[in-house]
Design brief:
The complex is a heterodimer of chains A (95) and B (205). Chain A has 5 helices and 3 strands, in the order ααβααββα. Chain A has 95 residues and is of the alpha+beta class. Chain A has a 3-stranded antiparallel sheet. In chain B, 78% of the residues lie in helices and 1% in strands. Chain B has helices at 3-18, 22-43, 50-84, 96-115, 125-143, 149-165, 170-199, and one strand at 87-88. In chain B, helix 5 runs antiparallel to helix 6 and helix 5 (125-143) runs parallel beside helix 7. The chains are: A alpha+beta (95), B mainly alpha (205). Chains A and B meet through helix 2, strand 1, helix 3, strand 3 and helix 5 of A and helix 1, helix 3 and strand 1 of B. Strand 1 of chain A pairs antiparallel with strand 1 of chain B.
Chain lengths: 95, 205
């Protein structure tokens, strides 16, 4: 358990990383809709993931409307896959 | 969270892509166009245009695929992204448009050459293709959470069976299968689009 990546282990952040795993990028609205998190909570979790180098955040515009695009980095994908492997191992040993 | 849950979560973006009904609608219109392209020569008397027409049609069908992608993107920008957010999927390789054109060209030559040969076994092709398409629809769209996937698959197989039972022939047979499937998908997708716009408010982020 001590080896588990604490950044990803937190349920809300795990949900965000899982949502982003199979796509290039998604915007803030999509992640908010799918995760059910509030704007503030989502921002805070994304900041933590960005600090860990797991997501890249690009702030841009679509026409005149602000658009925040979020995508997993290589390190983020690797961390998620590694986390899954570790959890798999733990669950197999436990049961 | 179990691995199965994580798999389900990872598939959500793909499911969200179909929530607005736009892919179904555009795919339906594309197949309706295919049905028309294949069906029109059956109602116009054959002439010198017959063979060149079949050389051109596969290119038009391939082009319609790219037009569909463009239209889907525009419609999603207009109706969907402001409501449920934007998702960018992995890009198709740069070689795929050329591969599609190559396949279209070869198909054109094969179809044109078969048209002048004996072709009783070819009359079964619409049913064969209908079964393949139905399987792909049921698996592909079903996995992406499209609730009407089974219905579309059933419509496709029913049309394929009708075409063979009534000995309609390959060209008109394909026209009926594609046209019927396209019509049902564009109606289903259109209804889903209307419901989506009614039930989702625009959000800015």
């Amino acid at each position: 358990m001590a080896d588990l990546d604490r950044v990803i282990h937190e349920p809300a952040r795990l949900l965000l990383v899982a949502l982003l795993r199979k796509i290039e990028r998604a915007d803030f609205v999509f992640l908010m809709n799918e995760s059910g998190l509030t704007r503030g909570n989502l921002s805070s979790h994304l900041s933590k993931l960005e600090e860990a180098g797991y997501v890249e955040i690009e702030k841009t515009y679509r026409g005149k409307v602000p658009l925040t695009l979020i995508g997993l980095t290589k390190a983020g994908r690797a961390a998620f896959d590694n986390y899954r492997k570790q959890m798999n191992g733990l669950l197999t040993r436990a049961g | 969270m179990q691995n199965a849950d994580l798999d389900e979560i990872s598939r959500r973006p793909l499911r969200a892509m179909h929530a607005d009904g736009i892919p179904e609608f555009i795919m339906g219109l594309t197949w309706l166009f295919w049905g028309l392209m294949l069906g029109i020569p059956q109602i116009v008397p054959k002439g010198a245009w017959w063979k060149p027409y079949w050389l051109v049609v596969p290119w038009l069908l391939a082009l319609s695929g790219f037009a569909a992608q463009w239209a889907m993107k525009r419609l999603k920008e207009r109706w969907s992204y402001r409501r449920t957010g934007y998702v960018e999927f992995s890009k198709t390789g740069a070689r795929s448009p050329w591969a599609a054109f190559l396949i279209a060209g070869i198909s054109g030559i094969v179809i044109a050459s078969f048209l002048s040969s004996s072709r009783s076994w070819l009359d079964l092709l619409p049913l064969g293709c209908a079964i393949l398409v139905a399987g792909a629809l049921a698996y592909g769209l079903g996995r992406q959470g499209v609730r009407r996937a089974g219905l579309y698959a059933a419509v496709t197989i029913a049309l394929g069976i009708c075409v063979v039972a009534l000995s309609i022939g390959i060209e008109l047979g394909f026209a009926i299968v594609w046209g019927g499937l396209g019509a049902s998908m564009s109606v289903g997708g259109g209804m889903q689009m209307a419901k989506f716009v009614r039930t989702h408010q625009e959000i800015h982020g």
